[in-house]
């Protein structure tokens, strides 16, 4: 006879009452975050106060922003410490439903944003067809537009275990390596390029170390993730990529460009002459050939740099976005369609575009606006953004 779960103390979600696995931090049923002490029996009230830090990589995950523009009649903003509704901006109640429109709030890990400065912002979203968010991002920026910014995006590989935890830990670790200005080398372009490549490789290595550190040593399918990092200093952009998360340069005018080159079966097919639209929609379109994680054999990223002579956008993203606009010009058309130079609004618009196009994979969009004369290279470190409250197949 099956035991009565209420009698044996099986933990349940405090929001929807669904059963929870041992050690679960998020409900698989509704996505609500689960605090340390398990609830047993019927659903209980959930505190709106943030839980005390336990050192877990997800403890400081920021709260999400709206993915759709609110209606003309906006409700009063939520009280300090309360979460905003992702649909209308109203206050989310203790039961995780909006007190204004009744919409169910996503978990804090399912949809979050960062905006370290007015000219840099990002959104990381679970997407409508996925059950959890395995993407992650970590951003830095100087307060003055055109000074210095860091965009890091990791896409946790979906067929590995705990990739959602690992990707966030890895993104934050890479960001810390890139907090300091990039080196100038010994004064020659070759020396500078070599020194910069070492720093970008160290960022990938730090991300890999963080991923391994949160991976269960006994895991039969250890966590893994793709990696892309972009550093903007004045009008010079430097990037590093591994896997199939990408960096793009999307100028307001002039040719747009994909900066990174994927480590994937699809990219190998493209290099062999297969049309991009065929390779990127084939059976192995998202089979990657390099990744970060305990079982990774090569974690050295491909590094590049260029000076940006025009105004435009630097974009780091996961395949949840470029799935629907892979060509640089197609992606720029979506940027133009959004009709804004506000990076937070544009990031939300691109996430909404990807969800409307199908939302088959987690979506991360991180943007830096380039439209100011280059200021002097910052020689100070950057403060972190405020926190508001077989071959693996990526996706």
TrEMBL record:
It comes from the Bacteria. Signal peptide: none annotated. Residues 45-83, 376-395 are annotated as: Disordered. Residues 162-370 form the PPM-type phosphatase domain. PROSITE patterns: PPM_2 (PS51746). It holds the Pfam family PP2C_2. This is Serine/threonine protein phosphatase. It comes from Nocardioides caeni. The lineage of its organism: Bacteria, Bacillati, Actinomycetota, Actinomycetes, Propionibacteriales.
């Amino acid at each position: 006879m099956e035991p009565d779960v209420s009698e044996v103390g099986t933990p349940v979600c405090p929001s929807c009452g669904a059963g929870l696995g041992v050690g679960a931090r998020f409900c698989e049923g509704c996505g609500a975050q689960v605090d340390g002490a398990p609830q047993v029996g019927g659903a209980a009230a959930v505190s709106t106060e943030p839980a005390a830090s336990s050192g877990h990589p997800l403890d400081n995950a920021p709260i999400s922003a709206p993915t759709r523009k609110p209606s003309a009649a906006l409700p009063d903003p939520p009280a300090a410490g309360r979460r905003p509704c992702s649909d209308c901006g109203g206050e989310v109640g203790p039961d995780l439903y909006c007190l204004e429109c009744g919409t169910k709030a996503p978990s804090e890990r399912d949809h979050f944003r960062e905006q370290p400065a007015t000219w840099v912002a990002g959104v990381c979203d679970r997407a409508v067809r996925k059950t959890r968010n395995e993407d992650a991002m970590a951003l830095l920026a100087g307060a003055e537009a055109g000074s210095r910014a860091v965009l890091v995006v990791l896409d946790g590989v979906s067929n590995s275990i705990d990739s959602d935890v690992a990707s966030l830990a890895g993104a934050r670790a890479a960001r810390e390596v890139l907090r300091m200005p990039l080196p100038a080398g010994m004064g020659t372009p070759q020396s500078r390029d070599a020194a910069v490549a070492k720093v970008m490789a160290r960022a990938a290595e730090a991300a890999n170390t963080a991923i391994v550190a949160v991976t269960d040593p006994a895991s039969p399918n250890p966590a893994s993730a793709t990696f892309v990092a972009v550093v903007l200093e004045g009008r010079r952009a430097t990037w590093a990529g591994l896997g199939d998360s990408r960096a793009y340069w999307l100028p307001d005018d002039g040719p747009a460009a994909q900066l990174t080159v994927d480590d994937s079966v699809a990219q190998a097919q493209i290099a062999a002459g297969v049309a991009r639209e065929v390779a990127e929609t084939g059976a192995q379109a998202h089979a990657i050939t390099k990744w970060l994680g305990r079982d990774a054999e090569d974690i050295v990223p491909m590094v590049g740099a260029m000076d940006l002579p025009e105004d435009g956008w630097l974009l780091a993203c996961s395949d949840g976005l470029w799935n629907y606009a892979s060509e640089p010009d197609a992606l720029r058309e979506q940027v133009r369609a959004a009709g804004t130079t506000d990076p937070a609004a544009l990031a939300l618009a691109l996430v909404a575009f990807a969800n409307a196009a199908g939302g088959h994979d987690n979506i991360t969009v991180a943007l830096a606006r380039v439209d100011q004369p280059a200021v002097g290279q910052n020689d100070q470190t950057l403060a972190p953004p405020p926190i508001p409250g077989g071959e693996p197949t990526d996706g």
